[in-house]
Write a structure and sequence with these properties.
Blueprint lengths: L1 H20 L2 E9 L5 E10 L2 E6 L10 E12 L1 E6 L19 H7 L1 H9 L2 E6 L6 H10 L7 E4 L4 E2 L12 E2 L3 H13 L4 E5 L16 H13 L3 E6 L2 H10 L3 E4 L5 H9 L3 E3 L3 H8 L1 H5 L5 H22 L2 E2 L16 H7 L4 H6 L3 H6 L17 E4 L8 H4 L4 E6 L2 E5 L9
Parallel strand pairs: 1-4, 5-6, 6-7, 8-9, 10-11, 11-12, 12-13, 13-14
Antiparallel strand pairs: 1-2, 2-3, 4-15, 15-16, 16-17
Helix pairs in contact: 2-4, 5-6, 6-7, 9-11
Bound molecules: zinc ion.
Length: about 425
């Protein structure tokens, strides 16, 4: 009996590894590889989870390889969303943020729907900034084990906040006041297994567009230094200019939102090569869903509309000053699947479609320290590849509109295939 079951397991392992080991040859009409090269009639050879080779024209296909013909589409690297909230799950009935509390395991399970929507938008990697009860850590690990389907995750666990209010909804995060408490909180977050530290350097979020600085410069500096001393990186949220100024001065690795930054702060951000993730579009979907989904109070839409304009203007200024800009959706609840709409704002602020695409591929790969394995379709890189309808170098809508994402491979596995469904024009 025991022997039989061992044999069964061995047989299963043997067959499953054979299935995984199969070489795939993927054909694209055009391939934008992420390193600046464009291949026509491209053939990408994928072996296990990695890209083996990329070639143009009638490149030879290895004997026995599975041929996947996507020649009517353009291939691009798997997209990276540098700012998400994957465990903010909405059931479609109640009002998000006012749902009854859920067990963390339930949250992680339900959030698989968000993970699926990310993949369907072509997003194969995310940086997730703030989750309750270790839910993003659990999802990251399950996805890496192959037991859950979703984008590759780099996570911060709990975000660090100052004590402000105990009124509902209680903010998710570790409360820390004073330098010692901040140091302790950063160490707790890293000890929990987080890849990143997230610090809330100002008020603001959802319908609240206030911009008050929360942590002092000394507290922010302590957070940055403690994070770096342990070999990790930190992302600092600031809705307003004061928190942004101190985050930049303290040497944050990435700066989130940062509306109304002054010229001096922008110049310093550029000089220090700090990544800037403006997250413009998320307030747009708050406006679109303010009444029907979020039930925001009167006046919220107007305040958000005003904030969006200033957020965009700051981002435009930063881009023209030479800032390293990244696409971050700040996706929550029903924003999942709209992750790449941010690209439209980036093009609107003056980026070429190629530059915008870099802000969602090679640039965030560098932020994550993964520039040798993510963000490009190139030999040795993870086989994270997306097939889109249309030419993203001519019209970024080929990527930003999720209906144009037709097929997605993550680490050599096909995770989305809509090539046989109804075709939509560009
Ligand atoms: Zn966020």
């Amino acid at each position: 009996m025991r022997r039989a079951s061992v044999l069964a397991v061995l047989f299963f392992l043997a067959t499953s590894s054979t299935a995984l080991a199969a070489t795939k040859a993927i054909k694209f009409g055009k391939l934008v590889d992420g390193t600046g090269r464009v291949f026509t009639n491209a053939v990408v050879i994928v072996d296990n989870d990695r890209v083996q080779s990329v070639a143009s024209g009638n490149a030879p296909i290895p004997a026995g390889a599975e041929v996947i013909d996507l020649s009517r589409y353009t291939g691009i690297p798997g997209l990276i969303d540098a700012h998400t909230h994957i465990t903010y799950y909405w059931d479609g009935n109640s009002t998000p943020r006012y749902e009854p509390p859920r067990h963390p395991v339930v949250t992680a399970f339900l959030a698989q729907e968000n993970a699926q929507k990310a993949l369907e938008a072509g997003v194969t990697t995310i940086r997730n900034l703030n989750s309750p009860d270790g839910t993003d850590l659990a999802m990251r690990d399950l996805i890496n084990m192959g037991k859950m389907i979703g984008p590759r995750m780099f996570v911060s666990g709990l975000g660090i906040r100052i004590t402000r209010s105990t009124a509902a909804p209680t903010p998710i995060g570790i409360m820390a006041d004073g330098v010692d408490a901040v140091i302790h909180a950063v160490r707790q977050v890293i000890a929990s297994g987080a890849d990143w530290v997230k610090l809330y350097g100002s008020t603001g979020g959802f319908d609240d567009v206030t911009q008050f600085q929360t942590f002092t410069f000394e507290e922010i500096k302590a957070a940055v230094d403690t994070t770096h001393a342990l070999g990790k990186k930190i992302a600092i949220h600031s809705y307003g200019p004061a928190g942004a100024r101190d985050a930049v001065r303290a040497g944050t690795d990435s700066l989130e939102h940062a509306t109304d930054m002054d010229d001096q702060t922008i110049a310093e951000l550029v000089k220090r090569k700090i990544y800037y993730i403006p997250t413009i579009d998320h307030n747009q979907y708050y406006v679109e869903n303010a009444d029907s989904v979020y039930h925001f109070p009167p006046g919220a839409k107007e305040r958000l509309g005003d904030y969006i304009q200033r957020n965009f203007e700051t981002a435009r200024k930063a881009f023209h000053a030479g800032a390293r800009m990244l696409v971050g959706s700040d996706a929550v609840y029903n924003g999942w699947g709209l992750n790449m709409r941010e690209l439209d704002w980036f093009v609107k602020m003056g980026m070429t479609p190629a530059q915008a695409l870099k802000a969602a591929t090679t640039e965030p790969a560098a932020l994550l320290g993964m520039d040798k394995s993510l963000g490009a379709v190139a030999p040795g890189f993870f086989a994270d590849i997306v097939a889109v309808e249309g030419d993203p170098l001519a019209n970024i809508g080929a990527v930003s509109k999720r209906e144009n994402v037709r097929w997605v491979m993550k680490a050599g596995r096909v995770v989305v295939d809509k090539t046989k469904g109804p075709q939509k024009s560009n």
